[in-house]
Amino acid sequence: DTGDVSLNGFDHYMLKEIYEQPESIRNAMRGRLDDQDATAVFGGLNLTPQQLRSVERIVLTGCGTSWHSALVGEYLIEELARIPVSVEYASELRYRNPPMENNTLVFGITQSGETADTLAALRETKRKGHRTLAICNVVASSIAQAADGGVYLHAGPEIGVASTKAYTSQCCVLAMLALYFGRTRHMSYEGGKRLIEELRRLPAAVQQALTTDEQVRDVAKKYCNATNFLYLGRQYNFPTALEGALKLKEISYIHAEGYPAAEMKHGPIALVDKDTPSLFIVPRGTTHDKVMANMEEVKARGGPIIAVASHDDPHIEAIADDVIRVPSVQEFLQPIVTVVPLQLLSYHIALLRGCDVDKPRNLAKSVTVE
Ligand code: AGP
C-alpha cells in the first residue's frame, strides 16, 4: 500500500527514499541535540535520572535491517557510554530466555512497528519486569504502543520493501542515545560537543555520498551477472557488510554473504574466484590497514574487488578494481555514510536484472506473522 505517497519524479520508491536520507537524518536529529549541556534530549524515553544512572545493560533487538542497526548501536553505545550491550534477533530472544541484570533496558528497533517477532520479544521482556522502549518509524504502531516509551525516527513513510532511510535514521538515533547515555557517565562536556558537531555534519556527508550514483551504476553494469557476492567490512563497518549483502539478496536475488573482513580466511575465502566479486568497506580508521591486507588476500586469489573508501585514500586503486569514494566522518559514524553506495548498488543491479525493486518476490514490507 503506497497510500498517497508520491514518487516525486523518481522511478521507484526505493530510489526516492535513498535520496531522502540527508533530510530524514536531519529530521531524526531535529530538536534532539542540546548544545548547552552537550547532550541529546528525548521527549519519550520516560526515564527518571535515577533509572538512567542505574542502567546496567542495554539489549537491542529487531529483525533484518533493524537488527543490523542494532549491531551499529552496540559499537556506538559500548564505545561512547561504556554500558554493556547485547544484540538479539527478536525471533530468538523471545524463546532464548537469557538471564538479564535487573536494570536492563530493552530497545525494540523497528521501522514498521508491526513486526510480530519484535513485538513478542518486547512483550516477553516486559513481562519479566524490564523496561521496554521502541525505536520506531511508524507513529502509534503496535510496538510503539506496547513499549514503555521510545524514540520516533521521523523518517516519513518508507514504501520500498528494502529498508534504506529507516536504517540510517535508526543508526543516527542510536548515536544520539549513545551521546545521551554517555553524558550521564564518562563522556566529558567537550566530548559531547565534538560528537554533536560530528552528528551535524552527517546530512551533508550523506548528500555527498549520493553523488556516487552514476559511478555506482557503472559498477553495477560490470557485475550484474554475478551469481555470488561477498561483502566484507570490519569493526564499525561489519554491520554495513551485512546490510549491503541483505540489500543485494532482497531485491536482485543474487546470493551475497556479509562477513567481518578478517573472518574471511576462516572459510568464505574458498568462494573467491574470478566470477565472485568482493565488496570491501574500507574507510580510513583503526582497521583500515588490516582490511587492506584482507583485500590483498582476495586479489592474490584472482577475485574482483570493489572498494568503498575514503575520499582521500591514495592507496586503494593499487588493489581494488573499482573504487567508490565517500566523505570521511568520525569513524564510528562512518556506517551511516558507507551504506549509501551499497543501497545504490543493489538498486542498480536489481534494475539491470529486470527485478521489481519496490516489491521483491516473497517479501512483505512488514512481517506480522511469526
Ligand atoms: C529490510 O530491507 C527488510 N525488508 C527486512 O529485513 C526488515 O528490516 C525487517 O523485516 C524488520 O522490519 P521492521 O524494521 O519494520 O521491524
Automatic annotation (TrEMBL):
Subunit structure: Homodimer.
GO terms of molecular function: carbohydrate derivative binding; glutamine-fructose-6-phosphate transaminase (isomerizing) activity
GO cellular component: cytosol
Organism: Rubripirellula reticaptiva
Reaction equation(s) it catalyzes: D-fructose 6-phosphate + L-glutamine = D-glucosamine 6-phosphate + L-glutamate
The EC number(s) this enzyme carries: 2.6.1.16
Protein's job: Catalyzes the first step in hexosamine metabolism, converting fructose-6P into glucosamine-6P using glutamine as a nitrogen source.
Superkingdom as given in the UniProt entry: Bacteria
Annotated GO biological process: carbohydrate metabolic process; fructose 6-phosphate metabolic process; protein N-linked glycosylation; UDP-N-acetylglucosamine metabolic process
First and last residues shown, out of full length: 249 to 618 of 618
Protein's name according to its UniProt entry: Glutamine--fructose-6-phosphate aminotransferase [isomerizing]
Residue ranges of domain SIS in the record: 48-187, 219-360
Annotated active site: 365
Localisation per UniProt entry: Cytoplasm
Key words of the record: Aminotransferase, Cytoplasm, Glutamine amidotransferase, Repeat, Transferase
